[in-house]
Structure formats: structure tokens, C-alpha cells
Amino acid sequence: MQKLLSVVSPKAPATSSGLSTTPPHLESSNVVQSFTSDGIAQTTAPENLLIVSPYTSRPHLLDLTLLNHAQVLLAKALTILTPVVETYATSPYISSFNWKAVFGLLAASAEADGYVWKEQSFYVVIFRSQVPPSTNRSELAALDEKSHAEAMAGDGLLKYWFGTPDAEGRNLATCIWRKHEDAQPGSSGEGHKAAMRATIKMYTEWQVERRKLLVGEKVEDWDIIPWND
Fold first, then answer.
1. Which secondary-structure segment (H or E) carries 110?
2. Cα maximum dimension of the chain
3. What does DSSP assign to residue 189?
4. CA distance 99 to 45
């Protein structure tokens, strides 16, 4: 298990990699795109809804009222998930993201809420792919967006992230679910089926990896290990 050596304050930490971060939830009556005085884009959503992916319209938001306390805390902590290496498409998953910052925020948020975190696990899916230059990226994006909306209908998807293809067309996407069973209905939707059919003609190669995210007592340690049925 990875040891959490320090606890950070419950604010999204700045990253030194210069890579993009997913915006955390903000309180508002509607989903709105706006800009700060220094030109930084920000997206707001109602306080019971959380932006958990690059998609910010209502069908893509996570309803926090359907989750337990631990799941809410983790979903909020995962809003700061961001890659720390530019080779995330091919690098080991556990070393490609700012997991220490995520779990530092989780620990701090649990402490701030007076919540005693109990050891528990979550289900992770990793999709590695390579697309040729001839691939219609707009079509891929449309398929992905529809698949994500279907997945969010089940209320168990806590985080969805995808990167940008590198010079060789390689990329990585990842989902973090509250449990394995939550992922199954999403994979049976028409959007997901269409996306899977598209892999045959749109991808040079692709690979699905499954992992278990383990978070220990009081978030004092954590690990990401292979999933076993």
C-alpha cells in the first residue's frame, strides 16, 4: 500500500507539470461556462451535482444525493485528478497521475467533516488506445459523449478522464466506479455498443485494463492493484 505522508488542505493543489486539471464543482443554479478576470475558464453547477468529466451538461453530472458520505468525499477529491507525466498513455497508471494529492485532499476533507474513513475499495477501468491519422476525431468524440451520458444514468461513475493523443496517436482514458456492478449497465447501452463497434475501424490498437483502488483506514494508505473477479 502507498503511504500518505502528509495531509493537504481541502483545496485543489496547483500542479507543476503544466498539464490540465478537471474543474471541481462550484455552487450555482445552472451549469454555466464563465471566465475569471485573468481569463481562466471555469464551469459551475448546482451544489448537489458534481462535474466529474470533461462533459458539463446536465446528463453528465454526478448527483451527490445518491451517494454515501465516503463516495461523495472521494468523488470530490477526484475532481483534482490530473496527469503528472506527459507519457500517461504508455506509462504505469499508478505513476501517471497525482494520486498523492487526491488522497491528501480526501484525508483532509474527511477530517474536516468529522468522518472516520473505513477501508474500502473501488473499481477502475483503464482504456489505452492508438488512433491512426485517418480517424474521424469528431465522430469518436460524439460516441464517447453519448457513452458517458449512458454511464452517468447509473449514478455509480465517480470519475471519467481522458487525455489527448500523443504524436503517435496513443491515448488513455479512465473510469473510477464505486463498485464493479455499477459499470455493467453502462456497458450495455446503445452508445457504448456503438463505441465498441467503432474500435474495429477507428483504432490501430486498444487495450482494457481493470484495477482495484484500495483506500485504507483513515486514508492513511492506498494502492491500485489488478482486479480479480
1. helix 99-113
2. 53
3. S
4. 25
Could you tell me which of 51, 44, 40, 41 has the C-alpha nearest to residue 29? 44
Q: What is the rounded distance in angstroms from the CA atom of residue 211 to the CA atom of residue 229?
A: 11
Query: Would you state the cell numbers that stand for residue 196, as one nine-digit string?
Result: 465498441
CB 5 within 8 A of CB 222: no
Question: Distance of CA 206 to CAs 24, 89, 137, Å?
Answer: 30, 11, 16
Tell how many helices (H) and how many strands (E) occur in the chain.
Answer: 5, 10
Q: CA neighbours within 13 Å on the CB side: how many for 138?
A: 0
Within 10 angstroms of residue 68's Cβ, the number of other Cβ atoms is 8
Instruction: Please spell the DSSP secondary structure of 134-161, one letter per residue.
Output: TS-HHHHHHHHHHHHHHHHTTS-EEEEE
List per-residue pLDDT tens for the chain, 229 residues long. Answer: 765 543 333 333 333 333 433 344 333 334 443 334 444 545 556 789 999 999 999 999 999 999 999 999 999 999 999 999 999 999 999 999 999 999 999 999 999 999 999 999 999 999 999 998 877 778 788 888 888 898 988 789 999 999 999 999 999 999 999 999 998 765 556 656 666 666 667 788 989 999 999 999 999 999 999 999 7
Please report where in the chains the cell 505522508 appears, as a residue. Answer: 5
Three-state DSSP state, 35: strand
Amino acid present at 210: R
